[in-house]
Amino acid sequence: MSKKRNRSLLMSLTVVLGMTVLTGCGGATAKTSGAQAGKSADFPNKPISLIVPFAAGGGTDTTARALAKAAEKVLKQPVTVVNKTGGGGSVGMTEGSNAKSDGYTVTVVTVELTTLPHLGLSPITYQNFKPVGMMNYEPAAITVRADSPWQTMKDFLDYAKANPGKVRLGNSGTGAIWHLAAAALEKETGTKFNHIPFEGAAPAITALLGGHVDAVPVSPPEVKSQVESGKLRSLAVLDDKPAEVLPGVKTLKEETGIAFDYIGTWRGLGVPKDTPDEIVQALSEGFLKGMEDEEFKAFMKKNGLTIVSKDSSSFGQYVKENDERFGKLIPELGLSKK
């Protein structure tokens, strides 16, 4: 009996130990899996830097700061703006593309990402980034002085066709987006302008006010206050829909029947190309929800800016199409330095 009891006790002990080992292993495995999943599930768990490739106080900077503030509420981490200026945006975007691919450095990317490479002015292209999302788009608006003889866009174009090269069109710099918009308008309408470059849209508008140029092709927000004060008059918006900040101003298509809705300035967000997709998705969701924030929407409306939100996939396709378009247009204009 004693031997039987010993054998029974030994078998019971073996079963108990076996169950303990299995339970322990199962618990350890579950814990390990949870830890592995947490590597992406807990993103972000520290502050995020947002590189702005333009100077503090400008439109891109103030828009980025407003969005950063809104996105913080969603991402539950501070989003700190860092200005890296130079090269028409190239310096900051280059630094952002070379950052660590962990999602903690996000870069504001602008239309210059798709123009500067074709102008031979930037070492990087859109392929150096993974798109996070788009936040803003503004078309060009052809604007003249209030005392201009041209009352309509048709008047303006008819005169330009009859007098090739005589209309002085101020722009934000040779190869800059508003120069490219004007050049594309020439192609669409069979006109020829005298393009006069300035160091940005603001100096071009000042020159218009002073009568040194005849018109400017800049964004509606950039001429909003002067139009409202009666100093300037916008003839048409180069887009498929009117600009909310320029009530009563028709599109080029409404004025002339010519469709023009493919060149404007835009702002979005990108991360280095090797950033894991799940982190890109988390950032995209966070910033896009930030664009729905009431304070952000109020900021954009107050400044006459248009919110155009696109997720990672649709923004990526949009940027690719922009790059292809400028890859053809810039060499046609003889501006490529490649």
UniProtKB/TrEMBL annotation:
InterPro entries: BUG, Bug_dom1
Pfam families with a match to the protein in the record: TctC
This protein's record includes keyword Signal: yes
Superkingdom of the source species: Bacteria
Residues of the signal peptide: 1-30
Gene3D superfamilies the UniProt entry points to: Bordetella uptake gene, domain 1, Periplasmic binding protein-like II
PROSITE patterns, per database record: PROKAR_LIPOPROTEIN
Keyword terms: Signal
CDD domains cross-referenced by the UniProt entry: PBP2_Bug_TTT (cd07012)
Stored PANTHER family: BLR1237 PROTEIN, TRICARBOXYLATE-BINDING PROTEIN
Family statement drawn from the similarity comment of this UniProt entry: Belongs to the UPF0065 (bug) family.
Protein name: Uncharacterized protein UPF0065
